[in-house]
Amino acid sequence: MTKRRTFLALIAGTLSSSLLLAGCLGNPPSKTGAGAASGSAPQAAVNSQASSQLETSTISLGFVPILEAAPLVIGLEKGFFAKHGLDVKLSKQASWSAARDNVVLGASGGGIDGGQWQLPMPQMISEGAITNGKKVPMTILAMLMSQGNGIAAANSVKDGNLTYNLKASSPNFFTAFNQKEGRKFRAAYTFPKANQDIWIRYWLAAGGVNPNKDVELLTVPAPETLQGMKNGTMEAFSTGDPWPSRIAKDNVGYLAATTAQIWKVHPEEYLAVRSDWVDKHPKAAVALLKGLIEAQMWIDKPENKDEAAKILSSRKWYNVPLPVLQQSFKGQYKIGANGTPETDPKMGPLYWSSDRGVISYPYKSLTLWFLLESLRWKFYPGTVDTIQQAEAINNRVVRDDLWLKAAKELGLPATDIPTSPSRGKETFFDGTVYDPANPQAYLDSLKIKG
């Protein structure tokens, strides 16, 4: 709390306090105004015949304006959800805290039924670990995207030449910085104890930097990263594109690392919905997944990326310059302190196809990794203290049966339908191996822990 207050005091004169307060207080999502997006695509009427087969024809989902939300927006705008009988209401969330509080409220209470989530938020909402003890069971239905995240560094630390491999590029930089400045290096993310916090911790620890001792960690909503970096209130920021790329494009900082460099085809954010909604509306849940899968397949086609960027860039959705999104979608980055141009779609955001198989399927081996990292850093004492607890929580929250049903109803080829809930062994840039069949070995291999 002290760090949060300190950060707010630093930026109070320049950032929108109303947006921050909406996130902190968990106000219901706004349905009107320039800062909100809601409603269904005007050009796509809901398929009434398909709708008549479902238990409900509506669902309210929250999103945060980063690339992970693209399948939800495209699913609505291109009519994929409507095709399968669903009127999906999308509400832009002021912050991850707001999304959390709004899913606790539920749509019936003016909140949301579910939406886009960093992990392990759905698991911890289910356990009451981040909701003041109130347990709201959640169901993880699909992965929204892989890669497409980055760690941006401020121009003030260009001399540090920060890269994905800190041991090679920036030995002893953090110690020297802290001594020179008389304070710790400040690194930020959008929500504590979740995806983007975990990415920056893995990056630092792999470089021999202890994130609990050698840096100061801050929480900042994604839309405020640009201004925060301009103000000098942080030296590094971990979040989803388009924000890292925009920081580099606007010459506010540089892209030190992409998450694809840290772990190729890594798990990212997920679609998760309140379990009471899923249990009451299993046919509608499958319809939601069918629309999502078709949206992910559509976005992944190279010929559709410019149109996707145009849709998302609008004020209604992301309110971000079109070229930034176009470049992000195509894996076009300027990497490092020197801004070296690199173009590799396989290292950019992936929504459907990858060298490791289908992106959308909710592999339990991947969702478990976030809980193991939570165990590593002692994020949730009393909730995740053992591997057995992590596995039990993961098995309760992740459901792949609905995804498999949706895939089969869509007639997807067998090659696109996983036959195991495990993707097998995973290898990180530093040589660390995560074998989901032996989680203890993974944890034992990590030198820096909480």
List the helices and strands and how they pair.
Elements (H helix, E strand, L loop, with lengths): L1 H10 L5 H9 L22 H4 L6 E6 L6 H8 L2 H4 L3 E6 L3 H10 L8 E4 L3 H7 L10 E6 L5 E6 L11 H4 L3 H9 L3 E5 L5 H12 L8 E5 L5 H7 L4 E5 L2 H7 L3 E6 H4 L7 E5 H6 L1 H19 L4 H9 L8 H8 L2 E4 L4 E4 L20 H13 L10 H11 L3 H9 L16 E2 L5 E2 L4 H7 L5
Parallel strand pairs: 1-2, 1-3, 6-7, 6-8
Antiparallel strand pairs: 3-10, 4-10, 5-8, 5-9, 11-12, 13-14
Helix pairs in contact: 2-6, 4-15, 15-20, 16-17, 18-19
What distinguishing features does this structure have?
globular; D-Maltodextrin-Binding Protein, domain 2; 450 residues; 5-stranded mixed sheet; alpha/beta
Instruction: Provide the structure class.
Output: alpha/beta
CATH architecture of the domain at 149-265 and 332-347, please?
3-Layer(aba) Sandwich
CATH topology of the domain at 149-265 and 332-347: D-Maltodextrin-Binding Protein, domain 2
Radius of gyration: 21 Å
Mean pLDDT over all positions: 90
Q: Looking at the chains present, what oligomeric state does this protein adopt? A: single chain
In the sheet with the most strands, the strands line up as: 2-1-3-10-4
Largest sheet, strands/sense/barrel:
5 strands, mixed
- CATH secondary-structure class of the domain at 149-265 and 332-347: Alpha Beta
What distance separates the N and C termini? 19 Å
Instruction: Estimate percent helicity.
Output: 25-40%
Question: How would you describe the shape?
Answer: globular
Strand content: 5-15%
Count all strands and give the number: 14
What would you give as the CATH superfamily of the domain at 149-265 and 332-347? Periplasmic binding protein-like II
Number of helices: 21
Low-confidence stretches: 1-36
